[in-house]
Design a protein that fits this description.
251 residues; alpha+beta; 2 domains; six-stranded antiparallel β-sheet; rod-shaped
């Protein structure tokens, strides 16, 4: 008998000697929100030369697995612990020492595999990935205010915004005077006059954006980019004026 064959037999006897005749159970307790309990991940089927002997002491269909405890939310694991190698069938398992598992898997002990989701619990992995995504988005995706500030470093956009402001003021100054004061006691007419004021403001804004857009195009900026950038600058300008008005009214 070769040394290797003798070694395999001795290891097999050690495996058989440590298997409990009464299997423990891996029972998962699953409330509505919080999930916790034990889980077993399959690693490999039993080696064909040991399958029959091991199944007699365990159960038919037994496989090599990895049992561990877990805690999570909504069926997603947040934390795992207490991992051990085992033989299992369904929820029944029989613990193995690492050396025994290594022999059954035909790998060195230091290269024994562990389930991916034991090393990286699903919910914890999602949280980490979500945080990384937010960091990346925060670093590479600019807010409207940041993009506007970046645009205004370019003289062409500063000039376009100045022209748009002047055009806006001119349009408002040229708009027909409202008769709201004369008819302040007539709610229906006051509402109609308010609508006309809003129309005048909208027309003035469109004219202002158009002037700025034309200036940018004359400076070599593509038409679609010029329109998009001017609309962005207009939004920021309106927001700035609203904030100033709010600050002055509360101050």
């Amino acid at each position: 008998m070769s040394v290797q064959s003798l070694k395999s037999r001795l290891v097999l006897l050690a495996v058989l000697g440590t298997l409990s005749l009464l299997p423990a159970r891996a029972e998962a307790k699953v409330p509505f929100l919080i999930t916790y309990g034990d889980s077993i991940s399959q690693l490999a089927p039993l080696p064909s030369d040991k399958k029959g002997t091991l199944e007699k002491l365990t159960k038919p269909g037994a496989e090599v697995g990895y049992k561990y405890s877990y805690f999570g939310l909504f069926f997603l694991d947040l934390w795992t612990w207490g991992g051990e190698y085992c033989l299992f069938e369904g929820k029944s398992f029989w613990s193995l020492k690492p050396e025994q598992a290594a022999d059954l898997l035909s790998v060195p002990v230091e290269k024994l595999p562990k389930p991916f989701f034991y090393r990286f619990p699903s919910l914890l992995s999602l949280l980490v990935l979500g945080i990384l995504a937010l960091v990346i988005i925060g670093r590479f995706v600019k807010s409207d205010e940041e993009e506007a500030a970046e645009l205004l470093k370019d003289e062409r956009y500063r000039e376009a915004l100045d022209l748009a402001r002047k055009k806006y003021e001119e349009q408002l100054a040229a708009a027909p005077a409202s008769d709201g004061e004369k008819a302040s006691d007539q709610p229906a007419e006051a509402s109609e006059e308010k609508s006309e004021d809003e129309d005048a403001t909208g027309s003035a804004l469109l004219a202002a954006v158009g002037v700025g857009e034309s200036h940018l195009i004359s400076k070599g900026i593509k038409a679609e980019d010029a329109k998009a950038k001017m609309l962005l600058l207009a939004r920021i300008e309106i927001l700035r004026k609203k904030q100033e008005a709010t600050a002055s009214s509360t101050g």
